[in-house]
Specification:
Oligomer: single chain
Number of strands: 12
Structural class: mainly beta
Order of helices and strands: HEEHEEEEEEEEEE
Helix content: 10-25%
Number of helices: 2
Length: 225
């Protein structure tokens, strides 16, 4: 008898729902609790879906979660063109060498993990070593292989190779005195790696040809615009 009364109560309740609107919430009928939910409006549904999309993790090109927490897809786009000035020093055959470099490169191809650039590399070098005192301006074409990195702090590691002409103003020391500068020219070459960090600060490591012949180690710091 109790179950029959409970059934009739629930039956009458749903009939009441058909007849008029009721508020959402929970209704207790003894052994049975009925919960009513308000139908979601199109605007509320759209807002909910947009919020869910924002909470989804950003994936890299391999479909893995990006650890750098980049929300803007444009952050993955490589620079179509960049200018990269840098200053630093070198050593090797030279006792000390000051270097000011300027790279200007264009994007020519793009792969999943590598961006390919070609452009111009101009270096001004001021060297000091016993017996000579060269001043060089190296004008070179370069090729850059920009390897992308899945690292929150390091954007890429760029392998670069350059070759061109080295314009040299040099004076020699004879009997303890330097002579006047004379002009010479030679081949110019270099190779190395640019470490491009998240904020586009660049650490440049490489080997350059001192007066076009002797290898000289180079370390410089720059910025990629």
């Amino acid at each position: 008898m109790k179950k029959l009364l409970l059934f009739l109560t629930v039956f009458l309740f749903f009939g009441f729902l058909i007849a008029e609107d009721v508020k959402t919430g929970e209704y207790d009928f003894g052994d049975i609790t009925v919960t009513l939910f308000e139908e979601e409006s199109p605007e509320a549904e759209k807002a909910r879906k947009e919020a869910e999309e924002k909470e989804k993790p950003v994936l890299n090109e391999e479909g893995k979660i990006c650890c750098c927490n980049i929300s803007d897809e444009k952050a993955f786009e490589p620079k179509k063109f960049y200018i990269q000035p840098a200053i630093g020093s070198g050593t090797g055959l030279s006792f000390f060498r000051f270097t000011a470099a300027l790279d200007a490169d264009f994007l020519v191809a793009r792969r999943e993990k590598i961006n390919y650039y070609v452009g111009l590399d101009i270096d001004a070098r001021f060297s000091y070593y016993i017996g000579s005192d060269p001043r060089e301006i190296a004008v070179q074409a370069n090729v850059v292989f920009d390897f992308l990195r899945d690292d929150p702090n390091l954007r890429s590691a760029s392998l670069w190779i350059s070759a061109g002409i080295d314009l040299i103003f040099i004076r020699d020391m004879i009997d303890g005195d330097y002579e006047d500068y004379v002009f010479e020219y030679s081949q110019a070459w270099g190779l190395g790696v640019d470490m491009v960090f998240k904020n586009y600060v660049v650490l440049k490591l490489g080997i350059d040809g001192l007066v076009g012949i002797w290898p000289d180690l180079t370390i410089a710091v720059g910025y990629r615009f």
